[in-house]
């Protein structure tokens, strides 16, 4: 595959994601409405809650696969140490919006220059973490992967790696655990990914976000959706969203 073909595919993906309407909603397994909204809908959400936007940075590899960049948090971190996560973090004074926070954090954590990332969509309303932080996934495309020279911040990131986005629609290496709460059953997803001599466990909120993003990009539900008795879908995606396979 030449670079022109790759850039054209990413450009098509950019155009399709940018057209997503605010009313195209997905219902999560815990009954929380989520929708993919255009970049223009970057208004701040309910005040009084801590907010932590994350960057879902997608790029195309030499085989034509769409991949997403992930990190393993440093063992020195006070929270979620050693866990796999998306680049991002809690908003700071001076951040204009969720996009500003997500791209700033990505630069601080892995040296990703914001000018290399074409932000095309967000998932709104935000996801709620187990520590009650509102996490807003910001979807960005990295067209020129060769220009990205990672510089990891050792105080925050132990390692950086990438995985095929389509993996989050397959039941290979997928597990789920049901956690019972008074009002609902929460389904804790996890995916095992092996690269060279390392094995990474992608689970919890990060896995849930990537399931949603993959479903939007590839225009289909996960293979394992039929096995999840609390997973409901309503107007998950429409013909306005990407209809061709990557």
Characterise the protein shown here.
Its cofactor is Mn(2+); Mg(2+). This is Nudix hydrolase domain-containing protein. GO terms for molecular function: coenzyme A diphosphatase activity; guanosine-3',5'-bis(diphosphate) 3'-diphosphatase activity; metal ion binding. Residues 49-186 form the Nudix hydrolase domain. With 246 residues, this protein is of the alpha+beta class. The chain has a domain at 3-165: Nucleoside Triphosphate Pyrophosphohydrolase, CATH 3.90.79.10. 18% of the residues lie in helices and 31% in strands. The chain is built from 3 helices and 13 strands; from the N terminus they run αβββββαββββββββα. Strands 1, 2, 3, 4, 5, 6, 9 and 10 form an 8-stranded mixed β-sheet that branches. A 3-stranded antiparallel β-sheet has the order 11-12-13. A hairpin with a 2-residue loop joins strand 12 and strand 13. The protein is globular and about 45 Å long. The two termini are 13 Å apart.
| Fold-level CATH name of one domain | Nucleoside Triphosphate Pyrophosphohydrolase
Largest sheet: 8 strands, mixed
Question: What is the H-and-E element order?
Answer: HEEEEEHEEEEEEEEH
Count of extended strands:
13
Output the structural class. Answer: alpha+beta
At CATH level 2, the architecture of one domain is Alpha-Beta Complex
How large is the count of helical segments?
3
CATH superfamily of one domain: Nucleoside Triphosphate Pyrophosphohydrolase
Shape: globular
Outline the low-pLDDT stretches: 21-38, 40-47, 226-246
Percentage of residues in DSSP E strands: 25-35%
Radius of gyration: 17 Å
Helix share, percent: 10-25%
Distance between termini?
A: 13 Å
State mean pLDDT (0 to 100 scale): 77
CATH class division of one domain: Alpha Beta
InterPro entries: CoAse (IPR045121), NUDIX_hydrolase-like_dom_sf (IPR015797), NUDIX_hydrolase_dom (IPR000086)
Cofactor: Mn(2+); Mg(2+)
GO molecular function, one term: metal ion binding
Keywords: Hydrolase, Magnesium, Manganese, Metal-binding
